[in-house]
Each structure stands twice: as structure tokens, then as C-alpha cells.
Amino acid sequence: MDTRIVGLASYLPANRVPASYFREFADADSRTLSENPMFAPPAFRHHAGPEESNVDLMCAAIERLPEPAAAAVAGVDVILTHSQLPDLPVVGCGGDVARRLKLSPSLVLDLHNGGCAAFILMLHLARTLFAAGTARTALLLTATNAAGNVFTQDRVRTLPQAAIPGDGAAAAVVSAAADGEGITVREVVLAQHSEYAGDMTAAIDPPRKYWEAGSGQLHVGFTESKIAKVLARGNRLVPEVALAAAAAGGLRGPEVGHLVTNQPNRTFLRNWREALELPPERHPDTFDECGNLFAVGVPHTLATSLAQGRIDRGEPVVLAAFAHAGDFAAAALLQT
Asked: Which domain of life is it from (predicted)?
């Protein structure tokens, strides 16, 4: 039985924010740091409203699924979700999505450690469950509303990192089938690098635990040394898993039809496609319209490219991404 993506859709909040919004608030240090390739801002990004939860975003993406995948949502066996900024500290979004849509899955898994590679991790878990015979359909959901909530705080929006993230959501219906329509998941490669797990940190000034009361505003803690480490790791990790996934299907890098990755910044995008010896037109991204969408980036860019007719039927496509400061990376070889 093959694992097939039989429906894919994404959603962006209506509030489209230009880079000038952040330039208005940036201090001198931020303007200098914005010259660093890690923080070169996109032209636009979309911000979720203060009351727009991850569950709201996920349900909006589900509403955009094409038929017959939209009808299949009612009977899915498994729901897999990832949210960049969970709505509640203790629980994920999957159960609430099921409640809101009146679904009755046999299993709900909320994945926190997949990071920007969460969609590919979900494909792996769906394949594993299908192979075990415990499920035949899965609903894969990613969402982020961190840009409109964390990065617009009055003391955070002055930082160079604030202009990079965007908000959005993506939904995919995946099924086990011997034949039929859909995108076949041929190979999945996972790479766990737990030695880097402690390098992603939150910063608050004055210091406090994130759950403690205080005046400081939470944001991601970047230092010059961390930036250099993440750039070096990202440049290596994504090509490694992308080439491994291609090789598992008997392909070299230049033989890949299209490469779809997460999109932290333009430097990574350029270095990754060059590592696979691909021209820019075969490495689509939505960075200048959406910024860094974290885990939403891969499925949103894939859905956008398919809708625009950029990817031909029967073409081999590699999805690849790394998470956080490099503690996890994953890639998948698809046959469209």
C-alpha cells in the first residue's frame, strides 16, 4: 500500500504586513543586524489577529481542502498537529480541532519537537501507522500565529528577528491506497541531532521563567555565536537529508524535479538549492510574501506551487527542512 497525499491546502490571515511596519520601530542596532543574512526581511508577511487561535487557522485551512479530500476529513482515523506557539501551555490543538469539527479519530498526536520539519515528520508517522495496519487515513495540520502575537510586542518588534516570521496554516489528507489519485510518498529520511537540542532558547529581560509574572517580553534568544552555529548547521543538515531522500529513490540532486524546503531566510534558500545543483525556478518558496512560516512553510509552498502549475504530474519532488537550532532534520521524496 502506498502513502498518498490526496488533498492539500493552506490559509494565510488577511492582515498582510509590509516590511515598513518593522522599519518604523527598529532601533539602530536592529538596522545594523538586519544586514545579517539571518535577518534580511521579506517584503511581506501575514499576521494573525489577537483572537485568532491555532485551531482557528487550522480549521480555515481545512475549509480550503479540495474535494474529495474535504469529504474524507469526516472519517479520518488519525489527526496529527503541530503549532509553533501552542494556544495552551499543556495541550496541543488536535483534540480541539476534532471537537470543533465533530470528528471521531482513533488517535490524536500533537507534535512539538518537529519544528519546521514537522510536516515531513507527520508523513513519516502516517506511513508508520498505515504499515502497522492501525490506520488508513490521517489529517495533517500545521499552524503558527506567533508572528502576530509574539513578534509585534512593543519591545520585541524593534528586534531584527521580528520582521522575519509570518502566520498561517496548512492541512493535508493522507491515505493508504494501492493506487488512485494523489501524491505518493516514496521515501522519508529523518535525522535526529539531540546534541543541539539545548541551543534554542527563549529570552526575557529582566530574566524570568516564561510562566512567571513580569514585565519582560518573551522572544527567541539570538547571539552572534548562535547565529553562526545555526547558519553552519542549516547549510549542512538540509542538503544532507534532501540528498539522502533523493538517493533512496535512485536520484542525484540535479535529477530532482523540484525542491521544497522551509524558508528561514534567503541565504539558506540559495545555499540549499546550490547544494543540490538546482536552478532557482526548481526551488520554489513563498518567503517574500509570507516570511518564515516555520512548520507551515513546506506544505504551504508545496500547495502554492501545485496550484500555480509549477510542478508537473509525475515529477519527483523532495521536501526538506531542519528544526530549531538543528536538533532535527527530515526530508521526503514525493512522486506527484
From this structure: Bacteria
